[in-house]
Design brief:
Helices cover about 20% and strands about 20% of the residues. The chain is α+β, with helices and mostly antiparallel strands. It folds into 3 domains: about 100 residues, no CATH class; about 70 residues, Immunoglobulins (Immunoglobulin-like, Sandwich), CATH 2.60.40.10; about 50 residues, no CATH class. The strands form 4 sheets. A 4-stranded mixed β-sheet has the order 2-6-5-4, with no helix packed on it. Strands 7-8-11 form a 3-stranded antiparallel β-sheet, with no helix packed on it. A 3-stranded antiparallel β-sheet has the order 10-9-12, with no helix packed on it. About 10% of the residues have low confidence.
Length: about 260
């Protein structure tokens, strides 16, 4: 025959054991929450609770987590990541190193507490850029081009103290079919808005064939030519040649003992 007192004691012990098991299960579930969020194990319970040891009042982030848990155990979502629970100007995702909330933490992120407004990522401002790009002309700064010949621009190189992928722009109207002198202007600007000092290149479109006609009048030599070619002078047939920029056909030259050579380009 069973002892009623003994049965009562066994019943109470069993109930106590059940309560302990239930309590242990709840504790284990809560202690696993940090592992269910990116970088959650860095600060553990301090992510959601005022006390870093856990338990007690929830902070602002912990309250948002409690609301998210109503939708299911997978509480870390892009919606929760997009919230700024503690109002410090950084989203929960930014503070835990997962800005888009996909559950994958980015490497090298500064992990802070999403429920503590006094703890937030340190933003390092990039150095101000006040230095302009530098252009270097490729090829000659003055090019002669025979009328009707296609022009291939040698271009310029662009270097900058910070930006590495800058390009340049070139302006200027060039008519390869019209004899004359044309100016190309090269410029570049970096991402900070600094404008490089512009560079220029002169393109001289010369006639394919030009005949220079000379005649003597008293003590002068008169030079005549057709088209818009440039009259050039040198002291040797091999040059160097210099433009007579103001000379137009016909052009009179006073004869002297100095030997000079002329051509039209």
């Amino acid at each position: 025959m069973k002892n009623p007192a003994w049965s009562q004691r066994v019943g109470k012990l069993g109930m106590t054991l059940v309560l302990l098991l239930i309590g242990h299960s709840t504790l284990s579930a809560r202690s696993s929450f940090p592992s269910m969020m990116p970088n959650g194990m860095v600060n553990r319970c301090a992510n959601c609770h005022v006390r870093s040891s856990g338990g007690g009042p929830r902070n602002a982030f912990g309250q948002d987590v409690a609301l998210a848990l109503r939708q299911g155990p997978a509480f870390w979502t892009s919606a929760l990541a997009a919230l700024d629970s503690d109002g410090d100007g950084f989203t929960n995702g930014e503070e835990l190193g997962d800005p888009d909330g996909d559950g994958v933490a980015l490497e090298g992120m500064n992990v802070t507490l999403p429920g503590n407004a006094a703890d937030f990522p340190i933003v390092v401002s990039p150095p101000s850029d006040t230095e302009a790009p530098v252009l270097t002309l490729l090829g000659l700064d003055s090019i002669e081009l025979i009328q009707g010949t296609p022009f291939v621009d040698p271009g310029v190189s662009v270097s900058d103290n910070l930006d590495t992928d800058l390009t340049y722009t070139v302006e200027g109207d060039l008519d390869i079919n019209q004899v004359g002198s044309y100016t190309l202007i090269y410029t570049a600007i970096d991402q900070a808005g600094n404008l490089a000092a512009p560079l220029q290149r002169l393109i001289h479109v010369i006639p394919a064939e030009t005949t220079l006609v000379t005649r003597r009048e008293s003590n002068q030599l008169v030079l005549s030519w057709e088209g818009q070619g440039r009259l050039q002078v040198a002291t040797s047939p091999a040059g160097p040649w210099s433009d007579l920029t103001t000379a137009t056909s016909p052009h009179a030259v006073t004869m002297s003992q100095l030997v000079q050579f002329y051509r039209v380009r």
